[in-house]
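Write out this protein's structure.
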Amino acid sequence: MLVEQPRTVAGGATLGSRLREPRILAGTAVGAVLALLIGLQVTAWIMGFDGPLASLARDFVGTPKSMSVPWAGLVLALVGISARRRVLALAVAIGIDAVWVALRLIDGKPFVVGNGPTIVLAGLAVIAAVRWQGRERFNALKAVALGALLVLATKVGDVWLHLTSAVRPTVLDEYALLADHALGDPSWVLGRVLDVLGPEVYAVLHWVYIELPVAAIAVAVWQLRRVVTTGQWPTHYLVRTFLVLGLVGPLFYVLFPVVGPMFAFGADGHGFEVGNFWPAALPPIDANPSALPFDEFTPRNCMPSMHTAWALSLFIHTRRDIDGSRAPIWMRWGGAFWLAATVTATLGFGYHYGVDLVAGAVLCLTVESALRAPERGWGAFRIQLVGFGTAVFAGLLLSYRYLAVPMAEYPVAAGAIVIGLLAAVAVAFHHTWFATAPAPAIERIPTPAA
C-alpha cells in the first residue's frame, strides 16, 4: 500500500502544518475576544449599564447605537470577496435595513440604520466558513474578521469609557490645565475662533470628528483593494494600527483621568466644574493643584487624545501606497484635511487640552513604529525608535502630573521642550520609514495541496 508523504516547504515544515498554524491562532484569538466580551458584559450588568453583547444584540434585532460603524465594518469585510458577491451582499444589507427602518417608522421610532450590515456581516462569516474553500475562504474570513473587530472594538470602547468614570472618581484637569499653559492654551484659543466662525464650520468639524472610523475604512479599503485580484495581503495597513491604538491608548485613561476643558472649566460640568471659564477666559493659575471630584458618568478619556492618534495614523497611511509608491493626490490631501480638521475639533470643542494631543501624537508614532514593515524584523533601528517614543510618552505624562506648576511658571522653556520632544520623535519616525521608498511588503498565503 502506497502512502503519500506530506509535502514540505522551506524549513522542513509540512504544508499542512503551515496551514494549521493560522487556524490555531485564529481560534485562540476568537476565544480571547469572546472571553473579553462576556467578562465586560457581566461587569456592565453588575454596574448597571449596557454591555457589549447587549449592544451587539440590538444591532441585530433592535435599534443600533451607531448608524455608520456597522456599515463601515461591512464595507471593510467586502474587500475579501469578489465584485459580484459584493454587489449581492450590499443589496441584501440595504434591503434588510429598509425593512427595519420601515418597521421602526411605523412604530413611531426614529430613523436609524445598521441592522442590515450587521446581519450580512455575520452571514458572510458563516457562508465563508461552511461553503468556501482555499484562498477564497481565507480572504473572506480575514476581511470579515477585520470588519467584525472594528464593530466589536467600538462596543468594548463604550464599556471602557463607563468604567473609567466608575473607577476614577477624581480627575487631574487642574494639572493638565497648568501644563497646557506651556503650549499657549490652544483649546481656549480655538474655542473662541470657532465661536466667531459660526455653526456651518462647527457642523463640518463635528461631522469629521464623529466619522473618523468612516474615513479610516475608506483608507483601509483603498489599501486592500487588490486583495482578491492578487490573492495577497499587505503585511501592514491602517486597520492594524487603529486596533492596536484602541487597545493600548485607553489604558492610560485610568492612569491619568481627565475630562477636558468644557467639562472641568466650562458650562457642561454638571455642577462639578471649577467655574464657567471655557472658552471666554482662562482660569487663574493655581500653585497648589489637586485632583477634582467629578461625576460618575463623564468619561475620563482625554489623556492621551486618541482622536489625534487615530487621525495621525490615517494621515501617515495616506502618504504612500502599500507598494511604496506615492499615494494619489486626492488621498494625500484627504488625509491631511482629516488630521487638520480633527485637531481643530478636539481643541475647539473643548474636548481636549493641547498636552493631550502631543501625547496622542507620540503614542501614534510609537505604535506605528512597532507595527510598520514587520518583514524588516526587530533590529536596533526599531528597538531604538520604539524605546525613544515610549520614553518620551512616559516623560510627558509624568511631567504633566508632577511638573505642571513649573511648566505654567516657565511656559516658553517648557513649551519648547514639549514641542521639541514631539518634533524629535517625528523626525526619527520620518527618517526611519519615509526617507527612502520601501520595497513592497506582501503577506504570502500558502496554497492548499490538491
